[in-house]
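Much of our argument rests on the idea that a fold can be written as discrete symbols. The amino acid sequence and the backbone structure tokens for this protein are reproduced below:

___
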Amino acid sequence: MKWFFCFFCLLFWSLLIASDRIPLNPSINQPQIDIYPENRESFRVEIRFPDLILTDTLQNAIVWSQLLINGMGSSGEIGSPQLPQTVRLFAIEKSGDYAAEFLSADIVEYSGISVFPAQPKPIRDNGSNAFQIDYSVYQQNRWYPEAMVSDQNEAILREQRILPVGVYPVQFNPVVKKMRIARSLSFRVSLKSGRGENVMLTGPNIPSRSFIPLYKNFIDNFSFSDMVAYGETPGLPDMLIITHDQFYQTVIPFAEWKRQKGIPCEI
């Protein structure tokens, strides 16, 4: 009897921690993005994805699979399949309605799987965190999400207008228990008719020096944008002081103090 109990415990814990890997692009461990400008109004984006990691967990007598792709987050709609996703930011012109158009994907299919539904964050009360599942989603015989690429409204990140694009490399059909997984996919960002959201004033923008790393890290095509780079504008001050002639001599010590602090300053 004791042997049977130990065997059952080992089996139970193995179900909780069992993991598998679906090879997509074994040579990479982060999504790889390539951008191909077509003209001033459009560019093509290609993304390759690292391997998909599956971790099994036992819940309500069902073995569910939790999915992970390194370098990506997960969809957070409570009760719906928790699938890898990422939102990429792209620099666009100061005005105009932009959209992302799905072009193609290199697909591999995987059957016989139940994708774990997204759960709310644990609540520290009495230890009760009820398992949540949205049956209106899990009982539909269709792919979730419906599209692998979805654009959002144009936005402004400080001095740069951007288009956020949601990318979903995994689709799941909960009725037939099948996944469609993209090894790679491509889409086009282009200018459509219309004014668009969050239109900016015309004229060149000078990016703040302290925000350059932010732009480079989060805007995938920042180097292709029409913003003025600091390297192309030597001697450009960080601070410009505008004053009446009669106060010129008064502000000179202040400007000199700023320069000594390492802040380029002109009057």
Observations:
- The first strand starts at residue 19 and ends at 22.
